[in-house]
Write a structure and sequence with these properties.
The complex is a heterodimer. Chain A contains 13 helices and 12 strands. Chain A is an alpha/beta fold. Chain A folds into 2 domains: about 170 residues, 2-Layer Sandwich (Nucleotidyltransferase, domain 5); about 160 residues, Nucleotidyltransferase, domain 5 (2-Layer Sandwich). A 5-stranded mixed β-sheet of chain A has the order 3-2-1-4-5, sandwiched between helices. The relative contact order of chain A is 0.17. By secondary structure, chain B is of the alpha/beta class. Chain B has 2 domains: about 190 residues, Alpha-Beta Complex (DHBP synthase), CATH 3.90.870; about 170 residues, Rossmann fold. Chain B is about 30% helix and about 25% strand. Chain B has a 7-stranded mixed β-sheet with strand order 11-17-16-12-15-14-13. In chain B, strands 4, 5, 6, 7, 8 and 10 form a 6-stranded mixed β-sheet that branches. In chain B, a hairpin with a 5-residue loop joins strand 16 and strand 17. The chains are: A alpha/beta, B alpha/beta.
């Protein structure tokens, strides 16, 4: 009896090694079932000195230098040996081609040579399922066997490269129902920061400056601006009247390039009008974040209204680290009485833990993995879709 | 280890003590506007090595350094336009400004890419120490690696093993500090304006005296898309026997991605053509009747040198039938031009100018 239980346990709680190299951080995690035993990110192990943006050639070199060490560190922290690994999972897209390559090659070699089962994972499915991760002690916001009570669900995935609303009928059954037509939300942060001359990455510094905005403009509400014969614009009622993008598109898509241009236009005027940048940068940073939050929550609300049957809303991606955006979305979902899931902070930005949890469900639900020669046929797909 | 309570009255005495510790290569703990920091002379190799011993397990995380002001920073890092702006408008304050280092600090302080983080804390005592010491000292948080950031000395000592504690010479205890988040790190080395300007000069030299082939003043995104389509129709046949490359030149928000959407629209590409800023290079297959090829959308915004473009595989797409749109092509104008001409490619230059909120002038040069 005890043996059977042990076998059952092994079957449902496979040991998964997960790798993500889709961008600048090399990241390796070890999972036992849904539990993350270890999640190691290169900048955290301090194996390479990080300062600096993502420069492709350096990213590739750094991944190559790091991956072996990060892998060993992850095994060590998880207290397992290489032999105990049953599945090797890796992000094969979307992402920076030459960065993805390093992880995919490493994972393929490991799986093929050591005869492990191989699970290629879509990075966005990782963001989608990051809320399902359990910590080492087995705690998390979604308890065991609760998974089925969550779907159908809508996911809002917001990162440096993506802005998507996904309809999830179930785990592993996804349909993108809204996406950006140009820049991703995270990218808009970087570009507006560039226009303001405040460096890279844009998210943290804009958020910091926004914290100093005058109270008067902080709590923006919608206002309608008539424009003669043109369509009225619904704007953030802030100091500079930045437009909330895509209010009239009628669909669930996003666009941040117009907001970017509007910021550029305001800045040109403000630089002429004011002596010091700080006379306007704090308020503009806050208003920009408001405009992004409002467009995200507006489209999410629309999506929920179009799909009233959904039980929950799931958030994922690095932009969900932004407190203003999370507050706005959280309030909306609460008001509409849906369940709301957001990953633990360390699993919001790119990480391998989320690749491991996605692999777990691919293994358990779909029995989807590769073995032997088939492993070698897998190639990175920089533009992979959900 | 000496622990002194900081009051306004003993400001000067504490400052002098701290400088004395720094001068003899010692370690001291000081308050900032965020958490407690730990300081050693950043130009003294032995002191930096001692700090590594204290922190334990830091196989080379870069250290940020405290300076008094921009003038002092300029002796240790190359300050560009972005950094200058941060110094002028936002410092002193909880921001670490990363610039290219000048190699004037001890080994292990700059990052492996030769960058250095500069901190000017909004705390008078720290500024006064920097002013009188006249050299930078480290600004890393006082906790040993992986442990929580310390906001009080008691919390710090509770979490620091005896061995590390013994390495500290002086602790300036300013009581419990407000729990503000640690400093925001910003990198100013991306998109170096000098590279851009050089590129722009090369481009204007190239286009001098030429007349534009097509011209449009667009009043909306849609009109910019349409003008992109018009350019594609005019030049598409060039791609029959050679790679066709559009160089898109214009500032942020001037319509380069919209124009690229227009190029793609005439190739019957059904996927949404999005900004390639993040992935650097996006690849789309197109088919028009019997004609097949790839539409390659490139953005050099995050790219530092030509090698980066080569490593994302640009060269392999320089073949007949392929159509390539390169945003910010002016950044590497001469090198790109040489590469493409070598591959027998045809270059079309598209120049975007910003006239007003929705108004752009777009010119096509061969």
């Amino acid at each position: 009896m005890f043996e059977v239980l042990k076998l059952m346990n092994k079957k449902n709680n496979p040991i998964i090694l997960a790798i993500d190299t889709s961008c600048d951080d090399t990241s390796v995690a070890v999972l036992k079932g849904r539990r993350v035993l270890a999640s190691v990110i290169s900048s955290q192990v301090e194996l390479h000195k990080k300062w600096g943006g993502v420069v492709p050639d350096i990213a590739r070199r750094a991944h190559k230098e790091n991956i072996g060490k990060v892998y060993l560190e992850a095994l060590k922290r998880a207290r397992i040996t290489e032999d105990e690994i049953e599945f090797v999972a890796v992000t094969y897209g979307p992402g920076l081609a030459i960065a993805l390559e390093v992880g995919v090659e490493f994972a393929k070699n490991l799986a093929y040579q050591k005869r492990k089962k191989f699970v290629p994972i879509n990075h966005m499915e990782g963001h989608m399922l990051a809320s399902f991760i359990l910590n080492q002690k087995g705690n998390g916001s979604i308890k065991g066997n609760q998974e089925n009570k969550i779907f159908p669900a809508l996911a809002l995935l917001i990162s440096g490269n993506h802005t998507e609303i996904v309809y999830a009928q179930n785990i592993n059954e996804y349909k993108i129902i809204g996406e950006t037509l140009d820049d991703a939300a995270g990218e808009a942060f970087d570009k507006v920061a560039r226009m303001m001359n405040i460096g890279y990455p844009g998210g943290p510094i804009l958020t910091m400056l926004a914290g100093r905005a005058s109270k008067k403009w902080s709590n923006a509400s919608l206002g309608v601006i008539e424009r003669g014969d043109k369509k009225p614009i619904i704007e953030v009622a802030g100091r500079f009247g930045l437009p909330i993008p895509m209010m009239h598109s009628g669909d669930l898509n996003f666009s941040f390039s117009g907001l970017k241009t509007a910021c550029l236009y305001r800045m040109k005027q403000l630089r002429e009008r004011y002596r010091k940048d700080t006379d306007w940068t704090y308020d503009l940073a806050r208003e920009f974040i408001n405009a992004v939050s409002k467009t995200l929550s507006f489209k999410l609300k629309k999506a929920i209204k179009m799909h009233p049957e959904i039980k929950s809303v799931i958030i994922g991606g690095g932009v969900s680290n932004n407190i203003y955006i999370v507050r706005e979305i959280g309030a909306l979902v609460g008001k509409l009485e849906k369940k709301y899931f957001i990953p633990e902070i360390r699993f919001r930005s790119d990480n391998a833990g989320m690749i491991g949890i996605a692999a777990y469900y691919n293994i358990i639900n779909k029995k989807s993995w590769l073995e032997g020669q088939d492993i070698l046929k897998v190639d990175r797909k920089p533009m992979l879709k959900l | 280890m000496e622990r002194i309570k900081y009051t306004k009255k003993n400001h000067k005495m504490i400052m002098e003590k701290a400088i004395e510790v720094l001068k003899r290569g010692g370690i001291f703990v000081f308050p900032t506007e965020t958490c407690y920091g730990i300081g050693v002379d950043a130009t003294n190799q032995a002191a930096i090595n001692r700090l590594s011993l204290y922190k334990t397990r830091r196989e080379g995380k870069p250290l940020s350094v405290v300076v008094e002001d921009e003038k002092m920073a300029a002796k240790y890092v190359a300050i560009n336009e972005v950094a200058k702006n941060l110094y002028k408008n936002y410092l002193p304050g909880p921001i670490t400004v990363v610039s290219k280092g000048l190699g004037k600090v001890a080994k292990g302080v700059e990052s492996e890419y030769g960058t250095l983080g500069i901190r000017i804390p909004d705390h008078q005592l720290v500024l006064d120490i920097a002013h009188n010491f006249k050299k930078p000292f480290t600004a890393t948080s006082a906790n040993i690696s992986y442990l929580p950031k310390p906001y009080s000395i008691d919390a710090l000592l509770k979490n620091t093993p005896q061995k590390s504690q013994e390495l500290i010479d002086l602790i300036i205890d300013a009581g419990e500090l407000p729990h503000r988040e640690t400093s925001t790190v910003v990198d100013t080395t991306m998109n170096n304006l000098n590279i851009m300007r050089e590129g722009q000069i090369n481009l204007s030299r190239e286009l001098a005296g030429r007349k534009s082939i097509l011209f449009a003043q667009t009043n909306s995104d849609q009109q910019t898309v349409n003008f992109g389509g018009m350019n594609m129709l005019k030049y598409i046949d060039e791609s029959l026997d050679k790679p066709l490359v559009f160089f898109l030149v214009g500032e942020l928000g001037s319509g380069k991605t919209q124009f690229s959407k227009g190029l793609a629209s005439k190739l019957a590409i059904k996927e949404i053509v999005k900004s390639p800023t993040f992935t650097i290079l996006n690849e789309y297959d197109y088919q028009l009747g019997k004609r097949k090829g790839k539409f390659i959308h490139v953005d050099t915004w995050r790219v530092e040198n030509l090698k980066d473009l080569e490593s994302v595989g640009l060269d392999r797409y320089l073949a007949a039938g392929n159509i390539i749109s390169i945003e910010w092509a002016d950044k590497f104008f001469d090198d790109l031009k040489e590469k493409i001409e070598k591959a027998g490619g045809k270059i079309i230059n598209i120049i975007f100018n910003y006239l007003g909120e929705d108004v752009r002038s777009i010119e096509t040069y061969e």
